[in-house]
Amino acid sequence: MTEKTLFEKIIDREIPADIVYEDDLCIAIEDINPQAPIHILLIPKKPIPKLSDCDNNDKELLSHLFLKVSEVAELCKIPESFRLNINNGASAGQEVFHLHIHIMGGRKFNWPPG
Ligand code: 5GP
């Protein structure tokens, strides 16, 4: 059996986290090292390592996640303006290999990102 990812342990309540939203398919938690006043991680419960590992079987899950973004942003009181980020692969900055969408808000973001 493969070891649980960090986020599976959070989903299974083995590691504590500040949960802002949860349903059958996903969970949204506060990032432990926030890069903005609001920094949420929206995580599918299915432990897909990274976005590029998704296939047609994940269509519904991906659409669910992206439709949840606005709802989570609203819950976190940043409905108007937020930055999404998905790191795909180590050289893109991915550290936790369980797909997640960063939802950040509450400050001005620059473009291009670093
Ligand atoms: P990545 O670099 O993989 O795109 O993002 C992983 C994110 O998970 C980072 O922003 C990091 O701060 C966050 N993180 C790492 N460990 C924990 C943890 O134990 N709890 C929470 N809530 N976030 C974590």
What does this structure look like?
The protein has 114 residues and is an alpha+beta fold. The protein has two helices and five strands; from the N terminus they run H-E-E-E-H-E-E. The chain is 20% helix and 21% strand. It has a five-stranded antiparallel β-sheet with strand order 1-2-3-5-4, covered by helices on one side. Strand 2 and strand 3 (38-44) form a beta hairpin. 22% of the residues are buried. The mean pLDDT is 97. Residues 6, 15, 17, 29-33, 41, 87, 93-96 line the site of guanosine-5'-monophosphate.
**Percent of sequence in beta strands:** 15-25%
**CATH homologous superfamily assignment:** HIT-like
Strand arrangement within the widest β-sheet reads 1-2-3-5-4
Mean pLDDT: 97
Secondary structure elements and pairings:
Layout: H1 6-11, E1 19-22, E2 26-30, E3 38-44, H2 59-75, E4 83-85, E5 101-105
Antiparallel strand pairs: 1-2, 2-3, 3-5, 4-5
This protein binds guanosine-5'-monophosphate.
